[in-house]
TrEMBL record:
<dbReference type="InterPro" id="IPR016455">
    <property type="entry name" value="XTH"/>
</dbReference>
<protein>
    <recommendedName>
        <fullName>Xyloglucan endotransglucosylase/hydrolase</fullName>
        <ecNumber>2.4.1.207</ecNumber>
    </recommendedName>
</protein>
<dbReference type="Pfam" id="PF06955">
    <property type="entry name" value="XET_C"/>
</dbReference>
<keyword id="KW-0808">Transferase</keyword>
<dbReference type="GO" id="GO:0048046">
    <property type="term" value="C:apoplast"/>
</dbReference>
<feature type="active site" description="Nucleophile">
    <location>
        <position position="107"/>
    </location>
</feature>
<feature type="active site" description="Proton donor">
    <location>
        <position position="111"/>
    </location>
</feature>
<keyword id="KW-0378">Hydrolase</keyword>
<dbReference type="InterPro" id="IPR000757">
    <property type="entry name" value="Beta-glucanase-like"/>
</dbReference>
<keyword id="KW-0325">Glycoprotein</keyword>
<feature type="glycosylation site" description="N-linked (GlcNAc...) asparagine">
    <location>
        <position position="115"/>
    </location>
</feature>
<dbReference type="GO" id="GO:0010411">
    <property type="term" value="P:xyloglucan metabolic process"/>
</dbReference>
<dbReference type="InterPro" id="IPR013320">
    <property type="entry name" value="ConA-like_dom_sf"/>
</dbReference>
<comment type="similarity">
    <text>Belongs to the glycosyl hydrolase 16 family.</text>
</comment>
<dbReference type="GO" id="GO:0016762">
    <property type="term" value="F:xyloglucan:xyloglucosyl transferase activity"/>
</dbReference>
<dbReference type="GO" id="GO:0004553">
    <property type="term" value="F:hydrolase activity, hydrolyzing O-glycosyl compounds"/>
</dbReference>
<keyword id="KW-0961">Cell wall biogenesis/degradation</keyword>
Length: 294
């Protein structure tokens, strides 16, 4: 994974979806937002810049907004560069996630929880499998995500789901089917992002409400990157195993350096991990038995 991330996602650039088997795309090109994504609601709350390669999502007291990928994907690498809502963003949530389309859905979530001015952003991640979630982990970021763009990425294959901030793995969800843990493998997902109000829970458990006098709240996006197996929503299988770069052996687990960085995040920046919450989960969830070794 590290070798790929050394040269992916240059600022302002996007790697086009590659049809080449066995290797990652290597030539960066400018690709407009409309190539892979479409707005989902409140179209007048999305603003386009630089030929559509950079966009702003706006939230006011009337509505938020969002967008989704045109295609559905079964495995791959998906990434956005985002600059979060600056200043007093209490009550707001900026989300970037993958989700399937049915009631027993699979989902892979990045959620950025706003704050009062001067307080750190909280990044919450979650994984749903077969409609079951409740796998929240929360961290503080080691930088101010409102000052510049940073890359937020998901690597998803048959072996693992890796959440990355820039090139740093912050979470791994392994395929532990042998332990009875469901893993997303047969439901294609669309890619979504949204900016919305959740002041009933997002900031200090809902104690801090959104200050609408600060509206509109603005999150900015660029480098819309997707390299996955595109499939119909009805598809149950994508016959790419061993043929695409993210299927290769080196992407089936983190390497030693990446595990060290993951441990660094765990020790320095983690503020909540469902795996250690004995109030909610008196019995340790089976996937957490491996997670505790990280």
């Amino acid at each position: 994974m590290a070798s790929f991330l050394q040269w992916t996602l240059s600022l302002g650039l996007l790697f086009m979806v590659s049809e080449t088997m066995g290797a990652a795309p290597r030539k960066p090109v400018d690709v407009p937002f409309g190539r892979n994504y479409v707005p989902t609601w409140a179209f007048d709350h999305i603003k386009y810049f630089k030929g559509g390669s950079e966009i702003e999502l706006l939230l006011d007291k009337y509505t938020g907004t969002g967008f989704q990928s045109k295609g559905s994907y079964l495995f791959g690498h998906f990434s956005m560069q985002i600059k979060m809502v600056p200043g007093d963003s209490a009550g707001t949530v900026t989300a970037f996630y993958l989700s399937s389309q049915n009631s027993e859905h699979d989902e892979i979530d990045f959620e950025f929880l706003g704050n009062r001015s001067g307080q750190p952003y909280i990044l919450q991640t979650n994984v749903f499998t077969g409609g079951k979630g409740d796998r929240e982990q929360r961290i503080y970021l080691w930088f101010d995500p409102t000052k510049a763009y940073h890359s937020y990425s998901v690597l998803w294959n048959l072996y693992q789901i890796v959440f990355l901030v820039d090139d740093v793995p912050i979470r791994v969800f392994k395929n532990l089917k042998k332990l009875g843990v469901k893993f997303p493998f047969d439901q294609p997902m669309k890619i979504y992002s949204s900016l919305w109000n959740a002041d009933d829970w997002a900031t200090r458990g809902g104690l801090e409400k959104t200050d609408w006098s600060k509206a509109p709240f603005i999150a900015t996006y660029k480098s819309f990157h997707v390299d996955g197996c595109e499939a119909s929503v009805q598809a149950k299988y994508c016959a790419t195993q061993g043929k695409r770069w993210w299927d290769q052996k080196e992407f089936q687990d983190l390497d030693a350096a990446q595990y060290r960085r993951l441990k660094w995040v765990r020790s320095k920046f983690t503020i909540y991990n469902y795996c250690t919450d004995r109030v909610r989960f008196p019995n340790v969830p089976p996937e957490c038995k491996l997670d505790r070794d990280i």
